[in-house]
Amino acid sequence: xxxxxxxxxxxxxATIFMxxxxxxxxxxxxxxxxxxxxxxxxxxxxxxGKFYHLNIITSTPINKELALGWIAHYSIGIxxxxxxxxxxxxxxLSDPTILPAIIIGLTTIIAPFFIMQPAFGFGVAGSKxxxxxxxxxxSLLTHLIYGLGLYATAxxxxxxxx
Length: 162
Prior knowledge:
Helix content is about 70%, strand content about 0%. The chain is built from 7 helices and no strands.
């Protein structure tokens, strides 16, 4: 049970780390981040049989899509933390190192590039968006920050439980 709790906390912490990065970009540099209502809208349409959208922005809104999007965002962050623990073993939580966290953080870019963005109607790796290379760079940096958050949170938990 302790292992599940620690892994869950690592996922939550890393996701908060990523959200603080997005908040900093938005507040200091006026760079917008993903509207999690769109994630909720996409997820809300899946049970209705609609996985792909021509443009998720113009798709019919879903009741409580913003809340659903935020819950999904944190659930995904937690899920990736479990992938890290499964991939690198329980020992990683006992003495976290940065490289596995960065590898998992960067690997998570697969989800938006090859699942979410195409399903939103934005193309593979945002290829249909106005500035696809900028979107790709921003996504890559965000997922790198998530990886750093995995490491920082695990290290903090490790320090607090010494």
